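Support request from a user on the community tier.

User writes: "When I paste my structure tokens into the form, the page sometimes reloads and wipes my input. The last time it worked, I copied everything first. Here is what I submitted, just in case something in the input itself triggers the reload:"
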């Protein structure tokens, strides 16, 4: 059975150890707006869903399965052309195990550092490189 976007968001947010407020801060929205995403009262835009996918490290397979099971099968076939259409749910246990392994390191960080990671994950690659350069220079000059 395919998972819904609200369930997926809540599952991965909790798995990462983030509060709704931390995620809302990262998205620059009210906490109540994010709560509506998790309860299904409103649906985030596709752009917001993709941002959340990156923040929570949600595998594409799981995200796509929320929309269309045939799209999920197409993605699997791209990775392995020998897959036949048997109308079966793919085994995503390896994706879930990877997320659980990631949880340990992030979950143990103080909330302030977790928020920093969320903000960092929101950046595009160019901005990540720029930020890292600025941080490097700041540390080099001040410590």
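"...and here is what came back when it finally went through:"
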């Amino acid at each position: 059975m395919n998972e819904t976007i609200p369930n997926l968001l809540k599952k991965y947010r909790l798995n990462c150890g983030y509060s709704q407020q931390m995620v809302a801060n990262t998205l620059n929205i009210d906490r109540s707006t994010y709560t509506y995403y998790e309860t299904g009262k409103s649906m985030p835009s596709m752009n917001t869903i993709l941002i959340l996918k990156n923040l929570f490290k949600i595998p594409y397979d799981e995200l796509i399965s929320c929309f269309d099971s045939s799209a999920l099968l197409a993605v699997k076939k791209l990775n392995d052309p020998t897959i036949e259409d048997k109308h079966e749910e793919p085994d995503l246990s390896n994706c879930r195990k990877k997320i659980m392994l990631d949880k340990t390191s992030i979950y143990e960080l103080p909330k302030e550092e977790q928020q920093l990671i969320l903000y960092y994950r929101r950046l595009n690659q160019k901005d990540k490189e720029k930020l890292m350069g600025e941080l490097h220079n700041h540390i080099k000059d001040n410590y």
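Agent notes: The reload is a front-end session timeout and is unrelated to the input. The chain has one domain: 5-83+91-142. The chain has a mean pLDDT of 78. Escalated to web team.
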